[in-house]
User: What shape does this take?
Amino acid sequence: FLSSPIRGVILETFGTGNAPDNRPEIIEAFAEAVARGVVIVNITQCHRGSVSDIYSTGHALCEAGVVSGRDMTAECA
Assistant: This one.
């Protein structure tokens, strides 16, 4: 789903922006897409709170170039 013509993706992740970091192939796919110019925004599924990279799982997405949506809703992102 990260192939052309996709130009942007919104990830709805857990808690403060956590996604499985024990799947390096997923993180690598995100990094490759970002390198090609795909914008990936990470938002939380929680009704309150925001995305942060303080935990290793959120940090892995940040290192891959995924943009923190902070406290954006899905509609806003």
Summary: The first strand starts at residue 8 and ends at 13. The mean pLDDT is 88. The beta strands are 8-13, 39-44, 67-68.
